[in-house]
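ASSEMBLY PREDICTION REQUEST
Request ID: AP-0331
Submitted by: J.K., bench scientist
Number of chains: two
Total residues: 583
Priority: normal
Notes: Please return the full assembly, not individual chains.
Input sequences:
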Amino acid sequence: MPPGDSSLTLLLRRLALLPFLALAAASLVFLLVNAIPGDPAVVRLGESAAPADLAVLRHSLGLDLPLASRYAKFVGGLVTGDFGFSWHSQRPNLDLILERFPATVELAACALVMALALSFPVALGAAARRGSLTDRLVRSGASGVAALPTYALGPVLVLLFAVNFGWFPVSGRRDPFSWLLPALTLAIPLSATLVRLIRANLEDELLAPYLAAARARGLSPARLLAKHALSNAALPVVTMIGLQLGSLLTGALVTETLFAWPGIGRLLIESIRRRDDPLLVATVFFFALVYLVVNLGVDLLYGMLDPRVRMEDSR
Amino acid sequence: MTRSKSEILAGGGIVIVLAAASILAPVLAAHDPVALSLGERLASPGGGHPFGTDELGRDVLARILFGARSSLLVASAAALLSTSIGLAVAAVAANAGKLVESVIFRLADVLLAFPGALLAVALAALLGPGRGKLVVALAATGWIGVARLSRSQIMKWRNEPFVAAAESAGATKGRIFFRHLLPQLVPLVVITGTLQLSGFVLSEGALSFLGLGIPPPDPSWGGMIDAARGHLLDAPYLTMFPAGALVLTMIGLALLGDGLVSRWGGER
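STATUS: Completed
Returned structure:
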C-alpha cells in the first residue's frame, strides 16, 4: 500500500473513532454527576428549603425525569451544541466556555513555544559535551526542575520577577507582558521534561550506526548533531508533547487561578466554588474533547513525520 | 557504589526522614498547628518560631510537619488503594477470559480520555472535602496504569515453564496467581507505587491549593501556599517553606523511583 494511501485510511479510522470516544467521555461525566449522592436542588436552596420549592426547582432542572431520559437529553444536547445553562450566570455554558477558551490556548501555546525554545539548545549543548560536568549538571538539574509543582513554582517566580525586580505584572491579562509569568510557570517543568527526553534520545542516536557512517564521511560534529541526530531525536518529542498537553491543560487550572488568567481552567474552578454543577460538567467535557482532538492531531503528525509508524499501522 | 544504588540511598533517605518527621510530628512540633495566636501574626522566622508564623499567628514549622502527615498519609493511602485495585483488575482480566478483559480495558481507555488530574479535580469537587474522599478521587484514575502494566507482566510470565509445571501439578488458577505470578510483580509494584506516590503528593497539593483537598484549618502544603499568596510581599517565607518541603519530597521520591527503575529496569 502506498504511504499516502495508508495515512489517509489511518486518518479516517481515527476520525471515525472520535465520536465514540467523545460519547464515552460524555457518559462518564454524566455518570460522575449522577452517581454522587446529594440532591442538587437541596445544594442550591439549602437544607431548610420548603418541599414545594424543592419540587419546583427539581422540575425546572429536569431532575424529576427518569435517569435514562435525562441521559438522552444530556447527550442529545451535547450533539447539537447545547451544553446546558449555567446556574450562576444564567447563560449558555458553551458561550461562557468559548469566551474563555482563547485565553487558555494562548497561554498553552506560549508555554509550549517557550519550553521548546528552552529545551532544545540546553539538550544539544549537553549532548555536545557528553559526559562533561555541564552534561551531568544539566541532567540532574532537569530531574529536579521537572519535579517542581506549578503551584509552588508560580509564587516563587512572582516573588522573583514581579515583586523583587518589578519586571512583570503579578496577575491579570491586560498588560502586554502579563502572559510571560504564567507561561513561564507552565514552561519550566515542561522544558525540564523535554530536556531529559531529548538528551536521552540524542544519546541513542549518537551511538547509532548511521551516525558513524556520517561521521566517516567527514561531517562536522555540529552538523552531525543538528542535521542527523536531532531530526531523529525530535520525533519522540512530538509524542511527549501530546502526552504533556494533558498536564498543560490541567496545569492551566492551577496557573490560571494563581495569575487570575481568564481561561477555561479558572472557569472550571469558579464553577466549583459557586457550586455551578452544569457549568462544571460542561467544562470538564470540553476539556476532554479538546484533549481527544489534540491527541488525534499529535498521532497524525507523528505518522507524517515517521514513515515507520505509517507502515506498521497499515499492516 | 553504582549510580542506581546511590540514588536509592539518597532518595530513600529523604523519604524516610520525611516519613519519620510526619509520624513524629506531635513530638517534634513545639506548637499546635491550628492554635491561633493573633498577637504573633506574621512573625519572621527565628526565636520561638524557627519558620515564623502565618497570618493567623500559627506556627509554620508545626504546620509543615503536620502538613507532611496529611500529604504522605493521603498519598500513601491512594497509592495503596490504586495498586490494590490495579492488581485485582489485572488478576480478574487475566483469568476471566477475552471478553471481560477487553471490556475492562476499553473502560479504562475512557477514563484515560480525560487529561491528567482533571478527573480527580472533578471528583474532589463533586464529592466534597475530606481525606477519605480525596483518596478516592486520586485513586479513581491511578489504578489504570498499574492494571495495564501488571496485565502485560502476567501475560509474559503466564507462558513460562514454571506456570505450566504448577498447572500440571494440579494448582488452581487462584493458587497460580497468588503463589507464582504475584511475587513476580513485586518489582513492578514497588516502582509504580513510588512513582504514584510522588504523583499523588503533587495532586494532593494541587487540590489543596485549589481549595478541593484537605479542608482548613488542618494544615496541608498546597493550602499553605494558597494562603500565602496574599503575603508574598511582607512574608515570602510563608511561600518558601511549604514549597521547599514539597520540592524536597518530590526530589526524594524521584531519586528513589529513578534508582529503582534502573536497578530493576531489565525486568520491566
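REVIEWER COMMENTS: Chain A touches chain B at residues 21, 24-25, 27-29, 32-33, 36, 143-144, 146-153, 155-156, 158-159, 163, 245-247, 249-251, 253-254, 257-258, 268-269, 272-273, 277, 280, 284, 287-288, 291-292 (CB under 8 Å).
SIGN-OFF: pending second reviewer
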